[in-house]
Specification:
Blueprint lengths: L5 H4 L7 E2 L4 H10 L4 E5 L5 E6 H9 L15 H8 L3 H4 L6 E2 L5 H11 L3 E5 L5 E6 H4 L7 H16 L7 E6 L2 E8 L3 H11 L6 E8 L8 E2 L1
Parallel strand pairs: 1-2, 4-5, 8-9
Antiparallel strand pairs: 2-3, 5-6, 7-8, 9-10
Helix pairs in contact: 3-4
């Protein structure tokens, strides 16, 4: 089965800045390119951190309200230093959380969740920045058309991988929700068919109505 990986989904034309890029230049980059964060790279093109809108807004957060309604927010010493920073090196969140082009969508999604980030910087074998992948990019796998999902499950999962008779199993797909019905030679193949179908790009859920050929009872189980 073919699965799209990070390299297929990432944005390759990445806007980046250097450690010594100034505060206003960073803000102009975000506005000009309509982005919410920018990677910071070293002289070898390797990412060392990320400056986001939140990092820039910390400067305002540490100031008193010009209208006199609010006092300056209490910031920890490290946050105070970042609020006073004038260049990317002082403003950035570091170290950068990175991914590799060959990572699966599952690997990338888990990395984002564990590090509590909205994007991953994609690096090559030498650690150089080659792209950026966001949560929205990963969600593109769910734009796979129902007819494409059905064809992949029927051809790749059932016929090519499991060697099943495609005429014995019916695959229905509606809005990414898959229903498998029919018979398979062995009960052990049911779990495998369901698991492989769940892994197909664009699948939201799989309902299992399969039964082994020796079972004459018609039932429905949901995985």
């Amino acid at each position: 089965m073919l699965h799209r990986v990070v390299g297929d989904l990432m944005t390759s034309a990445v806007v980046s800045v250097r450690r010594d890029t100034g505060f206003k230049d960073i803000a102009q980059h975000l506005a000009q390119y309509d982005i919410t964060a920018v990677p910071v790279i070293d002289d070898q093109g390797r990412p060392v951190g990320v400056v986001s809108e939140a990092d820039l807004l910390r400067k305002q957060q540490g100031q008193a309200d010009p209208g006199g309604h609010l006092a300056a927010a209490h910031l920890l010493p490290a946050e105070q230093a970042r609020a006073r920073a004038l260049t990317a090196e002082g403003l950035m969140t570091s170290p950068a959380v990175t991914a590799r082009p060959q990572w699966s969508v599952v690997e990338a999604a888990r990395a984002m969740a564990s590090h509590h980030v909205k994007r991953l910087l994609v690096v090559d074998d030498a650690g150089r920045l080659v792209g950026i992948v966001s949560r929205g990019d990963l969600l593109r796998v769910f734009l796979q058309r129902d007819i494409t999902i059905r064809e992949e499950i029927t051809t790749d999962v059932l016929t090519r991988t499991l060697g099943l008779d495609p005429g014995a199993v019916t695959v229905q797909v509606t809005d990414g929700r898959v229903t498998l019905s029919g018979t398979v030679p062995q009960a052990s193949l049911i779990t495998i068919a369901v698991r492989l179908s769940e892994s197909v790009d664009g699948v939201v859920d799989v309902t299992n109505n399969l039964r082994p050929e020796t079972d004459t009872t018609v039932g429905t189980a949901r995985r």
